[in-house]
Amino acid sequence: MKIRQQDVAQKLGVRQELISKIEVSKRRIDINDLISYCEALNYSLTEFAWKIETHLHCESLLPLPKNNIKNKRIRVNVS
Predict the structure, then answer these.
(1) What separation in angstroms does the CA of 57 have from each of 16, 34, 51, 64, 72?
(2) What is the sign, positive or negative, of the torsion defined by CA atoms of 16, 20, 21, 25?
(3) SS3 65
(4) E strand residue ranges, 1-79
(5) Distance CA 33, CA 71 (A)
(6) Selection from 16, 4, 1, 13 nearest residue 48 by Cα
(7) What is the pLDDT of residues 10-44, one digit of tens each?
């Protein structure tokens, strides 16, 4: 996307080093931080996940799903 880590860090109010660690998998982030990270990149969480899955499929790092979950209900407890 040609966005500097420093710019993302500034939007999130964190240091650039934290963004670097996240991007090279040296630090995990929780779901709330991931949502903020996506917003800083102007993506929804759904768009971001789709891009990750597409990239992993193209690199043969993630197999195609065996079942189509498009019309399946998924229950998530968010309390």
Answers:
(1) 29, 21, 10, 7, 22
(2) positive
(3) coil
(4) none
(5) 28
(6) 1
(7) 999 999 999 999 989 999 989 999 999 899 888 89
